[in-house]
Amino acid sequence: MPHLTIEYSANLPHYPEAETLTALNATLCAHPQVQDEADLKTRFIVADSFEIGIAPANRAFVHAQLRLLAGRTPEAKTELAGRIAAVLRERTPRPQGVMVQLSVEIVDMDRPSYVKERL
């Protein structure tokens, strides 16, 4: 915990994943809600198969989901979502003629059912 997963559509070529992972981890680890930098796990997933709406248009997406143990204030969640969105907004490719949709979601994880061990 926390877990940050960024999914993006395959029609966003040359996504700078490594640089974006570094920037995301830096901005999140600078936030007081992330107490131990070694707890942050961040990854990208490319959606090879996707549809956006029903119109035959050039559309793409980037969606980030940050999963945190429950208990954060709404203000803290809003700030974390804003930090993630700012990094993605800056680094997401914008191919000409393609509408890119960016979204960020903060999800509370159930504390009693979460298991984590360092082996």
Automatic annotation (TrEMBL):
Keywords on record: Isomerase
GO molecular function terms listed in the Swiss-Prot or TrEMBL record: 5-carboxymethyl-2-hydroxymuconate delta-isomerase activity
Keyword Secreted: no
UniProt-listed Pfam families: CHMI (PF02962)
Highest taxon listed in the record's lineage: Bacteria
InterPro entries: 5-COMe_2-OHmuconate_Isoase (IPR004220), Tautomerase/MIF_sf (IPR014347)
CDD domains, alphabetized: CHMI
UniProt-recorded name of the protein: 5-carboxymethyl-2-hydroxymuconate isomerase
Source organism per UniProt: Acidovorax kalamii
Classification of source organism: Bacteria, Pseudomonadati, Pseudomonadota, Betaproteobacteria, Burkholderiales
